[in-house]
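Notes from hallway chat w/ T.B., transcribed later so I don't forget. T.B. wanted the structure written out for a chain they're using in a teaching module, and asked if we could keep both sequence and structure tokens in one place. Agreed to drop them here.
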Amino acid sequence: MQDAGFVQKAFARIAPRYVLTNHVLSLGIDILWRKATANRIAELKPQWVLDLATGSGDLAMAIQSSCPQAHVLGGDFTPPMMTEAQRSGFHHLIAADALQLPVADGSFDVVTVAFGLRNMASWPRAISEMSRALRPGGHLFVLDFSLPTLPIVRPMYVFYLEKIMPQIAGLLTGHRDAFEYLCQSIERFPSGKDMEALLTSHGFASATTKPLSFGIASLYIAQKAQS
């Protein structure tokens, strides 16, 4: 698991350049991943959505665009990142530690977390809290990086992840160490069936995986039991 203090300080330092850096490092594909996630959520026609580790609000705004009828709330525990969300035009925000959410049981139809669960101090505890915040039958969407399984793609991606990405990010933000940590965390993060097992062991009745861009990222969709 992760050191919450280090994570909070790291994101506070890179907040002003975080969005630009993400777009450069992913060649803009992260925008398409968020749009695909928002479109899947729109199919559920939710009324109340909580986007955790909302950061600069990119996913929350994509969801609001795809679900104009929904009330979308963003939660984060790093104030400078929430400031970036406000600068982008998203203002429905709460200060929230995902391990102890300040919301009542069953408050939301959908909970989302994009590129954030990986950085939380306890994955099981965070997942259990997300389940608690959902109504019976509600859905959790986890969007995050993963390691491709294709033999040709995987070694090239790992090389990019370990050798190239931190250098580019360091030039863009001036904080290479923060992105070295983020890149290393991708390799430690469970994916595929391992992530599905983690979800179904901590409050969810079912979980599925949708690989994105040859498995560079994955979208996990879990549903809470109806009762």
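Follow-up for T.B.: Residues 27-147+190-223 form a domain with the Rossmann fold fold (CATH 3.40.50.150). Might be a good example for the class.
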